[in-house]
Amino acid sequence: MILFVMTMALTGATYFIVHRTLLKRETAKVRDRLSNRADPISASSSETTPLFLPEGADQSRLLNRLLAKMNVDRQLQNLIEQAGVSWAPGQVCITALLLALLAFNAVWYLFPFWQNMAFAAAPLAALLPLLYLRRRRKKRIAAFEAQFPDALQFIARAMRAGHAFSVALEMLYKEFSNPLGGEFRRTFEEQNLGLPMDTALEKLGQRLPLIDVQFFVAAVLLQKRTGGNLAEILDKLASLIRDRFKLRGQIRTISAHGRLSSLVLTAIPAVVAFLMYMVHPEHMHFFVEHEAGQWMAGLAIAFQALGYLIMRQIVKIEV
Q1: Scanning 171, 194, 219, 253, which has the fewest C-beta atoms within 10 Å of its C-beta?
Q2: Contact 137, 79 (CB under 8 A)
Q3: Cα separation of 200 and 213, whole Å?
Q4: CA quadruple 170, 176, 178, 180: dihedral sign
Q5: What is the C-alpha to C-alpha distance for residues 76 and 59, in angstroms, rounded to an integer?
Q6: Residues with Cβ < 8 Å from 137, sequence gap 6 or more?
Q7: What's the predicted TM-score (pTM) here?
């Protein structure tokens, strides 16, 4: 127990010291640039080095360079943007490594009978930040999709009232809350600062991997090139999205029995094991004290999780 506490304290202190050192170094660089006290080498290259780098663009650190070579930084950055959190790819990786170390030491020192499970607990703990981001992204995209039909009708009414499409976007993000308001505000500000409308809408479609957004972007771009009644197209698209929502609700109602069955079938072995431990604990000691029993219990848990995922995929119907 003392060794575990010492390991955790040493890990936390190391992370704190390294973080403070890097922060002081970056702060000193910015102060030198602002006060024109940089060394001759940096002063000679100040014309090509920007003062503020975009998020995730600092390639001077080893971790960022490694993520860039593995083509992971852009994927993580897209996931972070879609989740709507102010993280950086490097922070996600460091958090995953710290959680893996914490889980490994916790299982290894606190549960001596399950030391072999420490090698499985570490990668599972490392996946927690990614699972959190994916869950945040799913909830955020679902909230955007629920607001999207009303936004399309809002743009259609604004254009019928005589407003331009860019003005309708400005009115849209002022009237709607996040996440829809934030995404369209970013699109409006991008084109307002000089980015072509086509590029700004394409970036909107890249940030939001929804087929409805792709239809919206394609309709606007096509109307801009060939002409047509964009307001009528947006009204029909909004009606189509609402009809799909109704169909999705009906499918969820029909498949509710399958989802409940997957939960019950997955929970039955755990409940039976708990009852057996309460009634005959000596029968369950085999799965705790012996190495063969530990492997059997671990495989049973893994197969139960696999069966649950398979049953969830069976009842999952995309619309």
Answers
A1: 194
A2: yes
A3: 13
A4: negative
A5: 15
A6: 79, 82, 83, 84
A7: 0.70
Rounded Cα distance between 162 and 182, Å, is 24
Nearest partner of 76 among 99, 53, 95, 93, judged by Cα: 93
**Residue-wise pLDDT tens digits, 24-66:** 777 777 777 666 544 444 444 444 444 444 444 444 456 666 6
Residue type, 14: T
Residue by residue, what is the 3-state secondary structure of the chain?
CHHHHHHHHHHHHHHHHHHHHHHHHHHHHHHHHHCCCCCHHHHHCCCCCCCCCCCCCCCCCHHHHHHHHCCCHHHHHHHHHHHCCCCCHHHHHHHHHHHHHHHHHHHHHHCHHHHHHHHHHHHHHHCHHHHHHHHHHHHHHHHHHHHHHHHHHHHHHHHHCCCCHHHHHHHHHHHCCCCHHHHHHHHHHHHHCCCCHHHHHHHHHHHCCCHHHHHHHHHHHHHHHHCCCHHHHHHHHHHHHHHHHHHHHHHHHHCHHHHHHHHHHHHHHHHHHHHHHHHCHHHHCHHHHCHHHHHHHHHHHHHHHHHHHHHHHHHCCCC
Q: Which comes out higher in pLDDT, residue 65 or 296?
A: 296
**Are 184 and 151 a contacting pair, CB within 8 Å?**
yes
Query: Is residue 172 packed enough to be buried (19+ CB in 10 Å), middle (13-18) or exposed (0-12)?
Result: buried
Asked which of 38-42, 70-74, 303-307 is least confident by mean pLDDT, the reply is 38-42
Task: Give per-residue pLDDT as tens, 124-158.
Answer: 899 999 999 999 999 999 999 999 999 999 999 99
